[in-house]
Amino acid sequence: MKFRRQSQQEVSVNLTPLIDVVFLLLIFFMVSTTFTRETELQIDLPEAEGTEAEQENKRIEVEISADGVYSINGERLEGVERQALNERIQSVADGNTELPFIITADADARHELVVRAMDVAGSLGFTGLSISTQNSPDANGE
């Protein structure tokens, strides 16, 4: 019984073409990149005296306490019914659905109450809806 010896061939990958392509890409991007220098204007603004004009910063803030009480723009709402919430928001908004609508809920408030406030805002046509939060001490590394 004779054993045949298999020849061992060395397997190698030629990296030269890959390096050539990388250098060509590098040269291409270096040549085709344009660097713009932005100019600045030196402006001397006039000075004036007076008081700053107050801006009307109207918005609708719905606060929900831990015990389930709604407060709209700081005024407590008696009851948690959808209809009462709907009427109060309509009276505060005065038909302007472009106002920012902010919901602030206690961490222990029932989820149902937050969803109800969001649902009323959506049914009235408010599009600028946001939910306020506060940073936790863990997020600041304390």
UniProtKB/TrEMBL annotation:
Q: Which domain of life is it from?
A: Bacteria
Q: Name one GO cellular component term.
A: plasma membrane
Q: Does the keyword Metal-binding apply?
A: no
* Location in or out of the cell: Cell membrane
**Protein name in the entry:** Biopolymer transporter ExbD
| Taxonomic source organism | Halovibrio salipaludis
Similarity comment: Belongs to the ExbD/TolR family.
The major lineage groups are: Bacteria, Pseudomonadati, Pseudomonadota, Gammaproteobacteria, Oceanospirillales
PANTHER family the record matches: BIOPOLYMER TRANSPORT PROTEIN EXBD-RELATED, EXBD MEMBRANE COMPONENT OF PMF-DRIVEN MACROMOLECULE IMPORT SYSTEM
InterPro entries per UniProt: ExbD
